Amino acid sequence: MRVVLGVSGASGAALALACARHLxxxxxxxxxxLSPMAERTLDTEVGPDAVGELEAIAARRHDIRDMGATVxxxxxxxxxxxxxxxxxxxxxxxxxxxxxxxxxxxxxxxLKERRPLVLLARExxxxxxxxxxxxxxxxxxxxxxxxxxxxYLRPNSVDDIVTQIAxxxxxxxxxxxxxxxxxxxxx
Length: 187
Hints:
By secondary structure, the chain is of the alpha/beta class. The chain has helices at residues 14-25, 36-45, 50-57, 88-95, 102-112, 128-139, 158-171; strands spanning 2-7, 29-34, 60-62, 81-86, 117-121, 143-144.
């Protein structure tokens, strides 16, 4: 089972690593696509070894400019795609079919092939343009998953929050049993 993991330059770079770790535990082979700003954000927010760790987890890293990569084609079988984090620029390009780089093209392929596409849209506050782009992407079949903490789980750290949000994203691909902590019905 292959999964595309796209990483844009939005804040929240730790989400990409957490998603990759969850996917690896499920035995998924990851096709990684990083934007240039994603590399910078990973370095700034996570540390200088973050890109290397992502590359080590991934089965393959594709250059974002390589529009001939396997993940640019619907004939290449994958189980779905997560964009974590998803910048508003990437969201807008996906919502309007602007397949102008491999990240947005691979996302468009998921939509046209009716495969799961989960976008961890990262911005606040939201403008009307952001909301309309989220609506457009949702109408085409994407799932918008803003990285909002599940406070009812009483997280003890930022790492707990990041791990839970990434687990929810991976669960939305329906690759196996849920890995995210679930509400137990108690207050």
